[in-house]
Amino acid sequence: MTNTSALRIVWIYPDLLSTYGDQGNALILKRRAELRGIPTETVHVYSSDPVPEQGDIYLLGGGEDRPQILAAERLRADGGLARAAARGACVFAVCAGYQIIGESYGDDESNPLPGVGILDIRSGRGQSRAVGEIVADVDPALGVGRITGFENHQGRTAIGPSAKPLSTTVRGIGNDDRTEGAYQGQVLGTYLHGPALPRNPELADLLLRWRVGPLAPLAPSWGERLHDERLAAGMR
Amino acid sequence: MSELPLRAQLASVLGRSAAGLSRATGRGDGSVIGGRVALKVEPDLLAKLARGRRLALVSATNGKTTTTRLIAQALREFGDVATNEFGANMPTGHITALSDNQSAVNGVLEVDEKYLPQVLIATQPAFVVLMNLSRDQMDRASEINLLAKKWRVALGKSNAHVIANADDPLVAWAGLGAPNATWVSAGQRWKEDSWCCPECGGHLKRDVDPYWECPECGLARPETTWAVDNDSDVLLTPEGQRLKLRMNLPGDANRANAAIAAATAAGYGIHPERTLERLREVTSVAGRYTSVVTMGVEVRLLLSKNPAGWLESFAVLDPPRTPVILAVNAQVPDGKDTSWLWDVDYTVLRDRRVFVMGERRTDLALRLETDGVQFEVAERVDEVLGRLKADQPDITKVDLIANYTAFQQIRTAYGRVQ
Questions:
Q1: Same domain assignment for residues B214 and B305
Q2: Given CB atoms, is A129 within the 8 Å cutoff of chain B?
Q3: Which of B90, B116, B222, B402 could pair with B327 in a Cys bridge, judged by C-beta atoms 3.0 to 4.6 Å apart?
Q4: What is the DSSP letter of B341?
Q5: Which of B134, B199, B337, B369 to mutate to test the interface with A (most CBs of A within 10 A)?
Q6: Best mutation site among A22, A32, A66 for testing chain B: the one with the most B CBs within 10 Å?
Q7: Strand residue runs (E) in chain A
Q8: What region holds the CobB/CobQ-like glutamine amidotransferase domain (chain A) (predicted)?
Q9: B273 is a domain residue
Q10: What 8-state DSSP symbol labels residue B285?
């Protein structure tokens, strides 16, 4: 991390948590920042490396059961992500990454395992797998509107008093059939897996706004087209 | 046929009539329906049909159909081969393949990754041939770590001789569960699903391709006796020969498939030099790699279903002046989730003319825009060719990369070219 003025995007453990095009979130944040003249620096942190504490936006992706457990163990042992979050950094986590930044999550036999503990949620395993397109209305306080994505998980998540639901589920399962995702300060998690930010440009801009303040508007492009197209498909 | 018990004979005959009906009515090639009917009548039919043969089972995420075809081509040296060359790779398809050719002693069956353990138990094959495992259609497929574990356990209980790619850590770990193995250095371009040790989860040390080892538990790439040298297009044999490959199927992925096929054929007693001669006769596999000429332009059809496959296809594209069409659908056979498009690096396409097609072309459009690749959106292949010819009347070649149903739609439009 040499450039002190650049927006520092830190992708946590692409070797363990990168299952569904999770790279897309890092790429779209970089693009939407740079289109506005904000320089960025992206760092890939592998599971054998320490997590740097001076990042702006930390990204965690999805993973299979075993890599998820390994990632949680390594993040807890390292401590860097928890220190960054305590400092006020933004964390955006999807799917398996969402579960492990919570207080606890369930392994493949539903035993509770400790999470990183930076988001007040507790996850376990549901009776059935949630697979398919999902549509949800984001908490109006965040100014994001309706989001769409693809979910593929067996987790069910309960939100504790310190966190708020990210959104209300319109189609799909999300946390529990009623709400989808959670946030607490600038720590935000969702079951919309993989390229959740490319599919929802407003959500990407929320994270950027948290870090750099008000943003110049961008001319609508393919991201907005895709968002509208998937919204229409998701509501059919 | 006469060696099968009566009930199995009946099941086999019924299955074949159903398959014939399916073909006659133009509903399919008959491989799935035939097997389904037969299985209803005789649940142990697969085991009975397999008895007394020397079978090779072929499984992987990518290259199953092609490698099955290559091995069958080599084994025809000895006469008839029972094989599911239309890619019906579940037990119903295996039953049809074996029923259709009951006199063949040798057989090669392509097996869906998930079904490998049960087909292994049912057929007791002489060889199990394994090439690669990577992320693929994850809304309906199994997690690959889990898959590798199931392979490993099933191989540990069988007497089959494994022929496997040592350069893919997940495949090697599964194959190491077998009592006997022949290891091939067949390469691995896509590494994003194998940074972690399959045994203990440690971060693998992969400093010098193709070697890998786990610094935490010591698991390491097994020593190989066969190898591909992509740069010089050579197959290295256990006897130390360097044989020119000169395949008529393009790319490193097919060099890998050919090497695996040669190692398997050697297990049946065919000399690799002879095998390679036979493999060169294969120019397309179920329409893949074939070209159709339309409006005076040669369109080469490349089927790629997942990130590893797209990476391999990018590597075989013609020189940059050749335009490329990318076509993506998200129907059930494709996987309904297009997230995988974000795992592929498209920056290699920056210097050529690119068209996007298919039901999910908007996903592709955003993906290319994000990678700074110029592109045009189109509905159909002939529309693309019309636009190209308007700008460049002497254009002769176009490459087309499509995922499963997009590929089938285009192939059907040109008369199910083989």
A1: no
A2: no
A3: B402
A4: G
A5: B337
A6: A66
A7: 7-12, 40-45, 57-60, 90-94, 104-106, 112-114, 121-138, 146-159, 164-171, 179-184, 187-190
A8: 8-200
A9: yes
A10: B
Considering its fold, how many domains does chain A have in total?
1
ipTM of the predicted structure? Answer: 0.96
With CA atoms as reference, the chain B residue closest to A67 would be B201
pTM, two decimals, is 0.88
**CATH number of the domain to which B200 belongs:** 3.40.1190.10
Q: What are phi and psi of B66, to 5 degrees?
A: -65, -45
Instruction: Answer yes or no: is A111 within a domain.
Output: yes
Residues of chain B positioned with their CB less than 8 A from the CB of A97: none
Q: Which residue has the tokens 């259709």?
A: B100
User: In this structure, are B221 and B108 located in the same domain?
Assistant: yes
Check CB contact of B343 with chain A, cutoff 8 Å: yes
Give me the residue from A14, A21, A31 closest to B341, CB to CB.
A21
Considering the domain architecture, whether residues B308 and B250 belong to the same structural domain is answered as: no
Q: End of a domain among B253, B279, B305?
A: B279
Q: What is the pLDDT of residues A140-163, one digit of tens each?
A: 999 999 999 999 999 999 999 999
Q: pLDDT band at residue B31, thresholds of 50, 70 and 90? A: low
Q: Is B138 on the interface with A (CB under 8 A)?
A: yes
Return d(Cα B210, Cα A49) in angstroms, integer.
23
Asked if B107 contacts B78 with a C-beta cutoff of 8 angstroms, the reply is no
